Amino acid sequence: MEEIKFLEGKRLTVVGYGSQGHAHALNLHDLGMDVTVGLRQGSKSWEKAENDGVKVAVVGEAVKGADVVMILAPDEAQPELYRSEIEENLKSGAYLGFAHGFNIHYERITPREDVNVFMVAPKGPGHMVREIFEGGHGVPCLAAVHNDISEDTRDIAHAWANGVGRRVGVIETTFKEETETDLFGEQAVLCGGVTELMQAGFDTLVEAGYNPEVAYFECVHEMKLIIDMVYEKGFAAMRDSISNTAEYGDYITGKKIITKESKEAMKGVLKDIQRGKFAKEFIEETENGYKFMNKERAEYSDSKIEEVGSKMRKMVFSK
Ligand SMILES: NC(=O)C1=CN([C@@H]2O[C@H](COP(=O)(O)OP(=O)(O)OC[C@H]3O[C@@H](n4cnc5c(N)ncnc54)[C@H](OP(=O)(O)O)[C@@H]3O)[C@@H](O)[C@H]2O)C=CC1
Ligand SMILES: CC[C@](O)(C(C)=O)C(=O)O
Ligand SMILES: [Mg+2]
Ligand SMILES: [Mg+2]
Q1: Which residues bind Mg(2+) 2 per the record (predicted)?
Q2: How many domains does the chain have?
Q3: Is residue 319 over pLDDT 90?
Q4: Is the pLDDT at 21 greater than 90, yes or no?
Q5: End residue of a domain, out of 139, 173, 207
């Protein structure tokens, strides 16, 4: 692959072997790159990474002498990890990478001035970045450069993006644009918006006395099949495939559900991201031992929608 030649002969380190970490490490390893995974001593990911065939070392050792270091630990863990294990071990002139702009944009990490800083943000969950790559295709990535002392950091960023995402497309951005749009998208649309939409639809049908299993298929399970058509061919092709009855209902009802008020709420969400309010609250939550998140996790895992979903998935996927 012509595009990833800038990584050839370089020592690449991926710190973390979670959702994004395993995908970046394995995709680049499969393309013949020299990849080491950096983990903390006793990490539960250690054996998995070794079994997957990549070299593993403790973070400080993996960073020492590396040409490119991509930090793929959780955002909230990165500042302490950078200060304790990465900063003093990074060689001068190395390339330091991120998959999300959060810590640079909100100034939680200020990298040493003698290192190059870039971002490659795949536009998809890490497990899909790996699965789609294994299927011979790729997930597109955003790329940005924050510090370019070597004057070739853009080449490194594009090479990394083309390797991890199998050359399907790289869009240039800035740390600010990626951070704000990514946070907005995951909160208002992709994760927060979609799960609340499915939950509200499911609850409305169940509260009206309909069979929860029918409600689940209608409001959750079928979502993927409809969205797969949008993903592959766009809104018009999806609307072409559904019945005229559904298409008419789509035009007249969608706007009753996502109203002017919903759009105003979205603007409020964006403003809080732009002024750093969301970031501040998220960091406080992590410093507070994830109390709110643990409560939400427990409530959702005990919920009716999850109970029905588990039964329905057994039915659908055991065949
Ligand atoms: N999840 C996704 O799909 C996406 C994530 N991103 C970005 O990618 C980055 C990584 O996110 P994500 O993949 O979700 O992260 P994960 O939560 O999946 O990362 C878990 C990995 O990080 C390691 N880890 C956790 N804490 C520490 C620590 N203090 N020191 C060393 N290693 C640690 C874990 O090791 P251990 O086994 O020791 O716990 C594990 O290997 C973030 O910047 C995120 O915003 C960008 C696009 C999508
Ligand atoms: C949509 C959530 C995401 O931004 C992602 C998978 O792209 C994340 O932070 O995990
Ligand atoms: Mg994100
Ligand atoms: Mg994202």
Answers
A1: 182, 218, 222
A2: 2
A3: no
A4: yes
A5: 173
Average pLDDT for residues 1-6, to the nearest whole number? 78
Rounded-to-integer distance, Cα 264 and Cα 261, Å: 5
Answer whether 291's CB lies under 8 Å from 213's CB.
no
274 within a domain of the structure (yes/no)? no
Is 1 a residue whose pLDDT tops 60? no
| Residue nearest (by alpha carbon) to ligand 1 atom 36 | 43
Residues 90-102: tens digit of each pLDDT: 999 999 999 999 9
> Measured in angstroms, how far is the CA atom of residue 202 from the centroid of ligand 1?
32
Q: Which of 123, 163, 258 is nearest to 201 (CA)?
A: 258
One domain for residues 120 and 163: yes
Q: How far is the CA of 181 from the centre of ligand 4 (A)?
A: 8
Same domain, 69 and 166: yes
ipTM surpasses 0.95: yes
Residue 80 phi/psi, 5-degree rounding, is -65, -40
Strand partners, 37: 14, 56
Residue 132: CATH number of its domain = 3.40.50.720
Residue 279 lies in a domain: no
Q: What is the rounded distance in angstroms from the CA atom of residue 118 to the CA atom of residue 84?
A: 21
pLDDT at 318: 87
pLDDT of residue 167: 81
Tell me: the pLDDT tens digits for 210-219? 999 999 999 9
Token readout for 94 is: 């190395």
Q: Are residues 135 and 18 in the same domain?
A: yes
From residue 146, give the alpha-carbon distance in Å to each of 46, 80, 142, 157, 223.
31, 20, 13, 11, 38
Question: Does 263 map to a domain?
Answer: no
Residues 305 and 157 in one domain: no
Asked if residue 220 belongs to a domain, the reply is yes
Tell how far the Cα of 140 is from the centroid of ligand 2, in angstroms.
13
Catalytic residue among 24, 100, 105, 146: 100
Two structure tokens written together for 250: 């789509």
Round the average pLDDT of the chain to a whole number and report it.
97
Range of the domain at 110: 2-173
Task: Looking at the structure, tell me whether residues 80 and 201 fall in a common domain.
Answer: no
pTM over 0.95: yes
